[in-house]
Amino acid sequence: MLKDFGLFVGNDLNIANDNLLATLFFKRLSTLTYVNTQFKELFSLFMKASHSPDTLTENEFSMIHSLAASGRLQHSKSWLQQRVINLTQAYRVAESSLWGVKEPNLHIISDKFLSCIADLKFIYVCRNGLDMAFSKNMNQLNFWGSVFLDDHNIEICPRTMLKYWCVVFRRIQYFASIYHGRIFFLDFDKLCDKPAETIVNLASFLGIEQELSSDTISKIVRPKSVGRYLENDLSVLDPIDVRFVSKLYDI
């Protein structure tokens, strides 16, 4: 949708339009400890690498290379190094001054982005927590779970997945209360049910005058995974967490 709005979303993208350079820069446990000055420097380097990598200095390239010096959980050293290679090989000039970044883990440090960049807006895409509890994709739980659940021996299972979802959602709610009008909760289920309404609201949030396109709407397809919790045993989940999600989604 952002691409349809005319935003530049990066050069090094996967099939889901995730910005892989952002993964290199920000999907690291250490970014949680960055103070504002450190994060501003990291973000400035990311923006320069994203929009004008041909102007990077030797020292700046060295700093980017250091991010790929060793492998991480879920990403090998060679995968990370490919992001550095793609900086110049896959580079194209942005056609718009409007830009955005899609990366599933950025909500973890959304407060750092919002505190360091005064005019930045954040879109938080959320799905029904009960559906997410039974997702096969538990990458975020595996990567961040031990930090946010304060347990280094977490079990990767639906019960823990829902606990993680609840912690993350409450965290974003808190940030939204601080950064008024700068976080947009994009309800995935509502997007599937009422795409036109959601698209109009998103464009309004971004301050973009956008004519509703049938092409954009046609790209929104309700996946079979919506409502999968109905086919699973909810007794394996913590009742407190189930009640929290149930109130949000009026279940």
Characterise the protein shown here.
There is one protein chain. This protein is mainly alpha-helical. Helix 2 crosses helix 5 (110-116). The protein starts with 19 loop residues before the first helix and ends with a helix. The protein has twelve helices and two strands. It is 49% helix and 4% strand. The chain has a two-stranded parallel ribbon. The chain folds into two domains: 1-103, no CATH class; 121-251, P-loop containing nucleotide triphosphate hydrolases (Rossmann fold), CATH 3.40.50.
Name of the CATH class of the largest domain: Alpha Beta
Low-pLDDT stretches are none
The pLDDT mean sits at 94
Order of helices and strands: HHHHHEHHHEHHHH
Terminal CA distance: 28 Å
What is the CATH T-level topology of the largest domain? Rossmann fold
Helix-strand category: mainly alpha
Number of helices: 12
CATH architecture tag of the largest domain: 3-Layer(aba) Sandwich
List the helices and strands and how they pair.
Blueprint: H1 20-26, H2 36-51, H3 58-67, H4 77-89, H5 110-116, E1 122-126, H6 129-133, H7 139-148, H8 158-178, E2 183-187, H9 188-193, H10 195-206, H11 214-218, H12 239-249
Parallel strand pairs: 1-2
Helix pairs in contact: 2-5
Task: Please sum up the structure shown.
The chain is mostly helical and 251 residues long. The protein has helices at 20-26, 36-51, 58-67, 77-89, 110-116, 129-133, 139-148, 158-178, 188-193, 195-206, 214-218, 239-249, and strands at residues 122-126, 183-187.
Give me some keywords for this one.
251 residues; mainly alpha; Rossmann fold; two-stranded parallel sheet; 12 helices; 2 strands; 4% strand
